[in-house]
Amino acid sequence: MHIDEKDGKKILVCTVGSTVLNYDARCIEDLHAMLKKAGDWVELGGADEQKPANEGTVEAWGRSEANPVGGWYGLKKGLRGRFGVYVPPLMEELGLCELEHNAKNNRMRAK
Q1: Nearest to 46 by CA among 89, 90, 4, 81
Q2: Cβ neighbours of residue 3 under 8 Å, at least 6 residues apart?
Q3: Which helix (H) or strand (E) holds 43?
Q4: DSSP structure class, residue 86
Q5: Residue (of 94, 76, 73) closest to 84 by Cα position
Q6: How confident is the model at residue 95 (pLDDT cuts 50, 70, 90)?
Q7: Residue 20 · residue 13 · CB < 8 Å
Q8: Using N-to-C axis directions, what is the helix angle for 27-38 and 83-93, rounded to 10°?
Q9: CB of 78 within 8 A of CB of 107?
Q10: pLDDT tens string 33-85
């Protein structure tokens, strides 16, 4: 993952194999603020764009009209999902959250 710029906007570039996903770079600060406000563990709930996200999950928040950008943080149509899979590990590495590493149903919370 790295930060780049596209159309004058900072983006988070996530490369998984030959697939390249782009997210609005402000997702890191916005998600951290949401987690602080939640004050407890929040399920990740990763899902592809074409599948619905479970309510109350990081994935659902990352595509919700109620989040600070008013919709998807993912920027590439068809590849906007999986926010709850790829962004949380980066936030953990940056020291912004605690992240569970179970086989299923992982959660995260702000530090």
Answers
A1: 81
A2: 10, 11, 12, 13, 25
A3: strand 42-43
A4: H
A5: 73
A6: very high
A7: yes
A8: 90
A9: no
A10: 999 999 999 999 999 999 999 999 999 999 999 999 999 999 999 999 999 99
Tell me which amino acid residue 55 is.
E
d(CA 93, CA 111): 12
Express the helix, strand and coil content of the chain in percent, nearest 5 each.
25, 25, 50
Tell me the backbone φ, ψ of residue 91, rounded to 5 degrees: -65, -35
Query: What kind and span of H or E run contains 14?
Result: strand 9-16
CB-based contact 97:108 (threshold 8 Å)? yes
Mean predicted confidence (pLDDT) in 4-24: 95
